[in-house]
Amino acid sequence: MSSSDAPLSPRSQLALSCFEELLDCAVADVASECHRIARLGLDRSVDAEEEELRVWAARAAAGADHHHPGGGGAAEEGGAGGGSKGGVDVFGQTHPAIAADVIECMNCGRPVVAGRFAPHLEKCMGKVNQSTTVAGHFGSRLPDIVRFVPCIPFN
């Protein structure tokens, strides 16, 4: 927008609107292309950055092994993309591989460890393997009055 408070003519508003639309499209195009290149591994500079991350993770794992004997540094180095689950974060704090906070499931009321909450919720709400969960738990989800109504044959 311009710095003056004067209203823009309809032609100027249209030109500004077209310019903003073109700019948005250009930015989105560049961003999606950069994401595609990085995702497919076509950019060599990304490989260098990933190698630096692996070296940093190896140093962090070596430091964790020094403080925690038998800490499994090789398992952390071979992890998913240089991640440091159970290792040391950028602030030097160690975190468990699975979050240990206990959360109560709002669907069934059972206590669940935070690191396993999403898979539990999928199972609890019946989103996983519909063929087996529906067959196995169909009767348990119905109210008692519906479950125990005798079947009356129709003539």
UniProtKB/TrEMBL annotation:
Pfam families: Sgf11 (PF08209). The keyword Transcription applies. Residues 60-87 are annotated as: Disordered. GO terms for molecular function: zinc ion binding. Signal peptide: none annotated. GO terms for biological process: chromatin organization. Residues 70-86 have a biased composition (Gly residues). Its main location: nucleus. Keywords: Activator, Chromatin regulator, Metal-binding, Nucleus, Transcription, Transcription regulation, Zinc, Zinc-finger. It is found in: Nucleus. One of its GO terms (cellular component) is SAGA-type complex. PANTHER family: SAGA-ASSOCIATED FACTOR 11. Belongs to the SGF11 family. This is SAGA-associated factor 11. It comes from Dichanthelium oligosanthes.
